[in-house]
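SEVERITY: medium
COMPONENT: batch folding queue
REPORTER: lab tech (J.R.)

DESCRIPTION
The queue accepted two submissions in a row. Attaching both inputs and their returned structure tokens so the on-call engineer can compare them side by side.

ATTACHMENT 1
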Amino acid sequence: MKEAPLYSEIAKGPDEGAAWWMTSADGVRVRVGLWNRAAPNGTVFLFPGRTEYVEKYGDAAAHFAGCGYATLVIDWRGQGLADRLQDDVMSGHVHHFTDYQMDVAAMVEAAHRLDLPRPWHLLGHSMGGCIGLRAAMQGLEVQSAAFSGPMWGIALSDALRPVAWSLSWSSRQLGMSHFYAPGTARESYVLTEPFETNKLTNDREMYQYMINQANAHPELGIGGPSLRWLHEALSETRALARRRSPDLPCLTLLGSDEQIVDVARVHERMAHWPGGHLEIVPNGRHETLMDSPEMRVRLFKQLCEFYLGSGDGNASGPAPQASVARQARKS
């Protein structure tokens, strides 16, 4: 493992964070970042969403450190400081969605090499929720799984869904799959979308936190997804929807004002996840863990209680999960 840059001044995470380069099985270089390595209660594997990067989760790592957890975050291939996959480095692109599983394997290898404290837990946000679900189904070494606005489907109108399928599929046949998906461009979302109309957060300070990071280190950012990414994402979410949930305690956070992922897919899976709990966050948008201070404190407390409950071996089933949710709502 070779040391990699970690921009601590923009991450604002716990002290003594560090990052390393890892190489996935197909030779793609990815970056993993770690905070609070000597944590007493275990480690959270944090799977970011599309466009995201290690430093964006400095605030999350600070919350988890306060509960006694280490946080390990990854830059997926094609974003952050990981290897970009196209000449247009701003394109959100992937060749095959299952390629991300090679990045997961590299992240787990890093956790083993660093001998990170156990038990290990998963937190997957947005696209990271899709990658994390696949990984959990394939036996990821975690005690429990939590998700935030998971991309188990993409929010599209009934009229646009068949268009998205046909356009993204045909672009591959015509050699145009590297083009941006309609309605997107190479610019970073937070640098082009006014706070008043953003779909991520209600909190102006957190939105400015994202903007400041994008301005300070533009090399971390990417723009819209390619048509290839769109087709791969549609295919992967459809494939996962046909599979049963893994045998893991699960807590999923979903904002009541979610507009980016397919809300129906989230409700459908959680309704049939044994021992799972779906927490609807009032007034929450896509980034419920990057919203108001009150919302963040409440949700991170709920996540930590969930991990602690599942880590002690007493949270294997519906009743303990419901208990965790009730306790969090009372606090």
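ATTACHMENT 2
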Amino acid sequence: MRSISAEVRTLVEKMNSRAKELGMNDTVFKNCNGLDEEGHITSAYDVALMSRELTKHEKIFDYTSIWLDNLRGGKTQIVNTKTGTTNDAGCCMSATATRGDVSLISVVLGCKTGKERFADAAALLDYGFANVSVKELTLPEDMPKSIEVNGGMTDSVKLECKVSSKIVVDKGNGAKITTEIDLPDKIDAPVEKNRKIGTLTYLVNSKKVQSFDICAGDSVQKTSFGALLEYVFASLISL
């Protein structure tokens, strides 16, 4: 690595750390400008992961939509060429588009020309919109609403499972969404509210795609003389 300032080195370290957090396992940043440098590498999949994270912040579209702007009261003019091009990487591009409730990201690397880059990115997006759809996950009808509790002040506790997610499925393969519920027959007291009791798993054509925790919706004390006395006292107060 060529000589860089301490500030830039710190930034590069943070970039690599964040990349690992996002699962960009094929990426190593050696600089923060994106120019060619030995060991400075990434993959189309990793760029897609990074792009997906960026698109969560709506402000990014303000920057990507700017072609010409002025700084320092008009003394400096900047032009956003959006080239994405270096000698080693070729012409590259990450593009996103939305149709209805489907948002897709396409990444192309190593194109020979800018025209080819835009055409390939558009073709990937068109292919995606033609072949995938989004399904919202909902709780299955056979989801238990409670579970039996042994040795508790109440003989059962309600169950909660927060499912708020969507999955992408292929339009053409007759995608079948099924669920698997992993729960014990009963649990022992004491039970703390929000304690994980089991797991709800969603499958598409028998392949696991997403799981959610099934948790206790309330607390249940273990039966004891003190707990019984407290229960009786609370009952008398409520009369």
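NOTES FROM REPORTER
The two ends are 77 Å apart (CA to CA).
No errors were logged for either attachment.
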